[in-house]
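new request in #modeling-help
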Amino acid sequence: MNHPTDQSFCPVYEAINVLQEKWTLHIIRSLLDGPKGFNELSRAVGGCNPATLAQRVEKLEAINIVSKTIHSTMPPRTSYALTESGQALQKVIEAIDDWGRQYLPEPVAG
Amino acid sequence: MNHPTDQSFCPVYEAINVLQEKWTLHIIRSLLDGPKGFNELSRAVGGCNPATLAQRVEKLEAINIVSKTIHSTMPPRTSYALTESGQALQKVIEAIDDWGRQYLPEPVAG
DNA sequence: CCATATCACTTTGTAATGTAAAGTATTTGA
DNA sequence: TCAAATACTTTACATTACAAAGTGATATGG
């Protein structure tokens, strides 16, 4: 909803608003190595509770970053994958990866 | 605190944890075009309330992404700038910028 | 010379968001 | 038949972010 004062639509600003939501980048990173089911994704993401994860993938589906495919309702079998837009975020994840390796200190072992 | 199941320390994972916090990327982006005072930064970021902003820059200072310089206490004059580590995040912001321009639709007027 | 603005925040109370824990309905494997 | 897994939802609680107002001091304008 917010945007810089001097401009009515700023793509970077909006992009940041999308990506700064908790778990979003983790979800995208997890899906970069292939489609996953809900619990599988949950395990890959690590630490996100199902209520939040469900809400987040729904949002990501709405803005066309993730696509959801229901293979069967009973037994339940769903898969989440990145769309073209989602795949394009690999560049962002790579940049974050590079930065992390260079600037985040490995915690010293006790 | 969280980390992938198969590894004890993952730089990407930690980096994402840092960058996914609300306003963090906005703050970094704002500081990329030079140091700013508190209210100046607040205006550049756009929409973040001072309590949150104060807390966020304090955290970013603690992990050495932002540096705070107090020029005078009275009248109050402070400036926030990016450290080397913070400057290095320009690559991340650029990647987000590219993605936003390509994949975020401009809202239709009217 | 008094009101107003600005600086860098802090405080207070409330709204939004995220959390753990448990539950649902069904199938598969031991 | 019991435990585990699938994909979630529900509930009650905790954390986080929010708007609005306030603080103390100085500089500016009428």
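bot summary: Residues 37-39, 42, 50-51, 53-54, 73-78 of chain A lie near DNA strand D (CB under 10 Å from a C1').
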